[in-house]
Write a structure and sequence with these properties.
Distance between the termini: 61 Å
Shape: globular
Strand order of the largest sheet: 2-1-3-4-5
Structural class: alpha/beta
CATH architecture of the largest domain: 3-Layer(aba) Sandwich
Number of domains: 2
CATH superfamily of the largest domain: NAD(P)-binding Rossmann-like Domain
Order of helices and strands: EHEHHEHEHEEHEHEHHHHHH
Largest sheet: 5 strands, parallel
Strand content: 5-15%
Amino acid sequence: MSEVIAFLGLGHMGGPMAVNLVKAGYQVRGFDVVPAALEASTANGVPVAASAEEAAAGATVVLTMFPSGKHLLDAYRGGLLAAAQPGTLFLDCSTINVDEAREAAQLAVEAGHRAADAPVSGGVVGAEAGTLTFMVGAAAAEFETIAPLLEVMGKRAVHCGGNGAGQAAKICNNMLLGVSMIAASEAFVLGEKLGLEHQALYDVISTASGQCWAVTTNCPVPGPVPASPANRDYQPGFAGALMSKDLNLALAALESTGVSGELGALAAQIYQRFAEEGGAGRDFSGIITDIREKSEH
């Protein structure tokens, strides 16, 4: 393929995504500030550049997967936009604040480029398997341009609206996910106290009005759903630190829009505590252990 993709941010999510693009025949030039990420990507067949600017030079698409909006804006202002050829499409797949996403898009457009935001859902497992869901904020023309890339890295791409709309959808989705995982975990701990077997309660919830993704796919107790992280001592598919980050983004959005989101705000508080007290590197479904421990006092 003639397209050259600069892939910046080769961590747990970005690394496998870049590998899938290479396997699909795209010319990829990767970069990460973490030497171990560069080494892992090289070992997995992803060519790496000496800097982000070198990767971006001559690329058709510059794809970023960064930890925060500050990292993205600093990179854009620090020479990344200037290093790219005019008309380059800057595709950000990070999960950041909606206002930051719109500011980044404006910076890219003012520098003579095109912009899209496409945060993802599906975790590391989805990144490795190429089954991610992308929530895209972009003009229709930009969405058409990046759709083939997203098809390689994921199973679904939803065009949510203009710049920033992808981030808005991601924040809303993950706020609901965080709230529902807490509720599911409380239900299972309550079931334990009432003498219910995990499987019996799962069999009811999974086919009744309490049915939700937090139960049927990422079940917080081992046994009923063999693929859930609960069966691997909560090794993360989606880490507690990331859920805390996303809920704090949702909290900021609730406050800036004036929405009365009491459950979202409480979930942000609960997951921040979970992350600070040892849950940062565990799967977010590990919140059940925190609920269980606090229930014993």
